[in-house]
Structures are given as structure tokens and as C-alpha cells.
Amino acid sequence: MADETSTPQSTEQHAPSSRPAHAGPHSGPGAGAPRTPRPGGGPGGRKFFRRKKVCKFCTEKIDAISYRDVRLLQGFVAERGKIVPRRLTGVCTRHQRRLSLAIKQSRNIALLAFAARF
Q1: Does residue 64 contact residue 100 with C-beta atoms inside 8 Å?
Q2: H-helix segments, the chain
Q3: Considering the entire predicted model, what is its pTM?
Q4: How far is residue 96's CA from residue 77's CA, in Å, rounded to a whole number?
Q5: Which residues, in sequence order, are CB contacts of 106 under 8 Å at separation 6+?
Q6: d(Cα 11, Cα 23) in Å, to the nearest integer?
Q7: By the 8 A CB rule, do 70 and 111 touch?
Q8: Long-range contacts, 88-92 (Cβ 8 Å, 24+)
Q9: Would you write out the chain's pLDDT as a tens digit for each of its 118 residues?
Q10: Any bridge partners for residue 83, and if so which?
């Protein structure tokens, strides 16, 4: 009867974890294994083809970018007033530098706004 009145010992065994103890944050299913292409390849089963962006100024043979041409410059300034990077616009490095200088000059003489109005 002494067995009945004493507190029972915990006989529960812990279930093994689904991840090993040495698993880090980047070790999941397929970690380290080469990626395989997804079936279907996108909407409608077609592969997505990204067109190579070409510089607008090179194709139109524009050498000088004027700070006074506000309509042209506004196309390369985001809604909030930031200069849009060349990876988004597709402008070549040489023209992006000239474009950013023209935008900055245009801001300084108040043809373009530094920031958006709210």
C-alpha cells in the first residue's frame, strides 16, 4: 500500500524532436540539395521571359541631359522624390550619372521638388 500513497514517478518519455539537435535555422528539407525547376513554369504554363532593358538615351542618341527639361527628368524621379535606380529604369551607367546630376541641379533651382507634398 505504500506504493499507492506515494507520488507517482514520471514515466512519460519525451517524443523525439522532428529536427535534430544540431539543426540550424537554414537546415530544412532540401537544404544543401540542388534546386529543381518548378513544374509549370509560371502562369499558364509558360516560362517568364524578362526583356533586357536598354538605355533610353543611348537608343535615342541623346548626349546632353538638360536640367531644364523637367518632363524628361520627372520620369526618373519616384513619387516620393527619390531618384530611381538604374536597375529599374534600364539607363546605362554613364547616362545615369548625368541624369542624377541634372536632377540635383533642377532641384537646387526649384524646378523639381526635393520631396513629395503631403
Answers
A1: no
A2: 2-5, 56-59, 70-74, 86-89, 93-108
A3: 0.58
A4: 12
A5: 67, 68, 70, 73, 112
A6: 28
A7: yes
A8: 89/53, 89/56, 90/53, 90/54, 90/55, 90/56, 91/55, 91/56, 91/57, 92/55, 92/57, 92/58
A9: 555 555 556 555 555 555 556 555 555 565 666 766 655 555 556 777 778 889 999 999 988 999 999 999 999 999 999 999 999 999 999 999 999 999 999 999 999 999 987 7
A10: 77
**Residues belonging to the chain:** 118
Q: Residue 75 is placed in which grid cell?
A: 520620369
> What is the C-alpha separation between 59 and 40, in angstroms, rounded?
36
Cell of 72: 524628361
Backbone angles phi, psi at 11, to 5 degrees: -105, 10
